[in-house]
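your task:
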Amino acid sequence: MNSLKRIDPRRPFTVTAQGLKRITLGVTGVAGVTEFNVPLAAHGEQPKPRRTTAAPQRVLLVAAHADRGALDDHARQTLAGAALIADASTEVVLLVFGEFTDDAAALGADKLIVLPMFERRTFAPLDELNALAACVAAYAPVHIFLPDNATGDGDLGRRYAAAANASVATHVVEIDAAHVAAYIHANTALAARALPDVVLLAPNAVEPKLPFIGAGERIVWRFDNDTVASKGVVRDLGVEEIDAAQLALEEADFIVSAGNGVSDVPAFERLAATLGAAIGASRVAVDDGKFTRDKQIGATGKTVEASVYIAFGISGAVQHLQGIKDCRHVIAVNLDASAPIAKRANLTVIADARETIAALNEAAAAARSARGTGAALLNSTAVAEGVLA
């Protein structure tokens, strides 16, 4: 038997002035440092450099709506696209509609303007158009970038281009500092043109991971209500809440999904109702007759884009992983720590699915008793997060 103790080469280390890597014995889970006390990321990753430190001569403006304080993948890709084509004398300004708590510098922005009054659940297209126009007037950007989506940004970009009589390119799938391109003729050919005033970027056109960071300076900007308000031209009728079980899985923002490891289906359905989540299932669970075929998620079922996807007792076959590839946060509950779903998940709970579901239901029931039914339902997601943690 080999009793030699081996050193993990990926453990935190220091870098000497000569560039030699030295693993620090007995140290785990801390960031590496150099002999000049310059901090390094975990496992010796070098901190990313600033894209530019030169005085800005021109501006690229990126506008997008935030969701729960952060940009979605499509908006991050759009910001990355602007940052990648910006030269050393160009400043990237990010205009966010809604609350924003993410790291703008890490996303590539040099300046950040946040308009928390325009949260995504409020329909105020004319007010948003006026706010965007005011920002354009203040910074005079040479180009404006927005994600070409169906949740407000694509509409805003088209409204602005029409109001300002600006050149615009939509569904852009290719971009560099000189041109943009979009598919034509049923996606069989590309049409290219010079970079227009307004660029509406298609999803997945740009890799959002950047080799640099921006300055991330947060700008406090106040608008004159008299110039921004649309004075009742558009009236917001509010959001109509519906039962999550009636929502198509492709449109659901919160999904709990069951696999072969879920044996108590009624308890699982009670949990979904408590959390206000739509119900999905793996192919195995559907084939076993536990759920109807319209609940199946995967390559041979539905492809979903939920902000939160909780998989109970799902091993994660490649077909299922394909169906959840666009989900923002994936939580897996599984007894097998090496299951494929664990590699995709942002958080993996190594536990029995039935016991975890029962614990969540008990926690929700206790919360209802302690706080009242209404408060418990409002805080059910927080309860779930607490139990899973």
In short: The radius of gyration is 24 Å.
